UniProtKB/TrEMBL annotation:
The keyword Transport applies. InterPro entries: V_ATPase_D. Keywords: ATP synthesis, Coiled coil, Hydrogen ion transport, Ion transport, Transport. GO terms for biological process: proton motive force-driven plasma membrane ATP synthesis. This is V-type ATP synthase subunit D. GO terms for molecular function: ATP binding; proton-transporting ATP synthase activity, rotational mechanism; proton-transporting ATPase activity, rotational mechanism. It comes from Facklamia miroungae.
């Protein structure tokens, strides 16, 4: 419910409130447009995120199944030795991309070698086919995992901005604009009453 603001019913206050109301209405429209555009970007990214996550989870599941089989056929010491082997070098550079005044990360991952051509970095004598498939599968999932990180972080930042924008839109739509309009109506009514009272007094003075 709209409330009358605690201001004096004067023409100066009326003029100031009309300016405030016009500014709030323009701001509300701009924020609403921003909210809609943020939602559009957010929904597109959520779709991409879901598709990529399904791919990653499916490939991870397949690789881990092979790893479980390999682990059951090999000694724990050999598995630990393989895990200790230095992995592939990755250079990460992070730039900022602006989406509707929101700075989101744009990550560029530079792999040391072509991930499809680089050989596995351990001897094949004590290993088995399941281990080879598991490690090769995990290695090839890496670029998708890194891309998933970028998308999910962007979604998180956009979601936070959407929530902030929604609160501002609601504050303008349900509090400031109605209260300002109600106060404008109240002051206009008071000024009209004062004007009628002034005319009535003048008429009485004229009659006298």
């Amino acid at each position: 419910m709209a409330n009358v603001l605690g201001v004096k019913p004067t023409r100066m206050e009326l003029s100031a409130l009309k300016s405030t109301h016009a500014l709030a209405s323009r701001g509300h429209k701009l924020l609403k447009d921003k909210q809609d555009e943020l939602m559009r970007h957010f929904i597109d990214l959520i779709r991409k995120n879901n598709e990529l996550r399904e791919q990653v989870e499916a490939e991870l599941s397949e690789a881990l199944q092979s790893f479980v089989i390999a682990k059951s056929l090999m000694s724990d010491n050999f598995i630990e030795e393989i895990a200790a082997i230095s992995g592939q070098k990755i250079d990460l550079s992070i730039n900022l991309k602006n989406i509707m005044s929101v700075n989101v990360p744009q990550m560029d991952f530079n792999l040391e070698d072509d991930i499809d051509d680089e050989p596995l970095r351990y001897g094949y004598l004590n290993s088995n086919a399941e281990l080879d498939e598991a490690l090769d599968g995990l290695r090839k999932i890496l670029p998708k995992l890194l891309k998933l990180v970028e998308i999910e972080k962007t979604c998180q930042l956009l979601a936070d901005e959407i929530e902030k924008t929604r609160r501002r839109v609601n504050a303008l739509e349900y509090r400031m604009i109605p209260d300002t309009q109600e106060t404008i109506n109240y002051i206009s009514m008071k000024l009209e009453e004062n004007e009628r009272a002034s005319i009535t007094r003048m008429m009485k003075v004229k009659d006298l």
